[in-house]
Amino acid sequence: MDESIFASGKAKMDQVVELVSQELDQVRTGRAKPALVERVKVEAYEGTTMEVREVAAIAAPDPHSLIIKPWDTNVLKSLEKALLKADLGASPVVEGEQVRLTIQPLSQERREELVKQVGQRVESGKAMLRQIRNEVKHEIDEHEDDPGVSEDDVHAMYDRLQSLIDDYNGKLDSLEEAKAKELMEL
Fold first, then answer.
1. Are 75 and 46 in contact (CB under 8 A)?
2. What tens digit of pLDDT does each residue of 117-130 get?
3. Residue of 81, 88, 93, 148 with fewest CB within 10 Å of its CB?
4. What is the rounded distance in angstroms from the CA atom of residue 99 to the CA atom of residue 76?
């Protein structure tokens, strides 16, 4: 049977894990991390929308603040507006040619709420993996009647597919566990 079935399925599964990982990076943990603001959209130049990481250097001088220094100071006001609009739970303050973002520590209640959100995002990733499994299973079923393909071959492919899905579910579980641990640290 054609190996490209698994290759395309595996590529899609890698994309799911990467997507979930990016989503989890955006969850605020009470600790200042550049990933928190990297993807915030800024209207940089007359209708051109860019991400913060494309218009500024982002630094975390301590665990509770970020310094965002635009390469072009003309973008400073737009950057401030975009950070306010992003609703990060912190107010940006313009200091000369840079913006300081102070991240407030999270309450225990908020931490628990964010852990639930992380679980929901991971579960949506698992749902995407199930959809990919169904697509690959359908492709395997289409080759079931091909000459030289036995029932044992088909069952071996199903087992291999399930093993692959289990591996990727494990990766998502690891991401969830690490993020939950990070959120619950004081």
1. no
2. 999 999 999 999 99
3. 148
4. 8
CA distance 57 to 151: 58
Q: How far apart are CA 120 and CA 177, in angstroms?
A: 13
**SS3 call for 71:** coil
Q: Which of 65, 73, 61 is nearest to 98 (CA)?
A: 73
Domain residues for 97? 34-102
Q: 65 falls in which pLDDT band (50, 70, 90)?
A: confident
pLDDT at 177: 95
Region for 13 from its dihedrals, namely left if φ exceeds 0, alpha if ψ lies in -120 to 50, beta otherwise: alpha
The answer on 111 and 53 residing in a single domain is no
* 122 lies in the same domain as 174: yes
CA distance 56 to 42: 10
Confidence of residue 46 (pLDDT cuts 50, 70, 90): confident
Query: In sequence order, which residues have a C-beta less than 8 Å from that of residue 69 and are 6 or more positions away?
Result: 56, 57, 59, 97, 98, 99
Question: What total number of domains does the chain contain?
Answer: 2
**Spatial separation of the C-alpha atoms in residues 50 and 40, rounded to whole Å:** 8
pTM of the complete model = 0.71
State the CATH number of the domain containing residue 87. 3.30.1360.40
Indicate whether 19 and 55 sit together in one domain. no
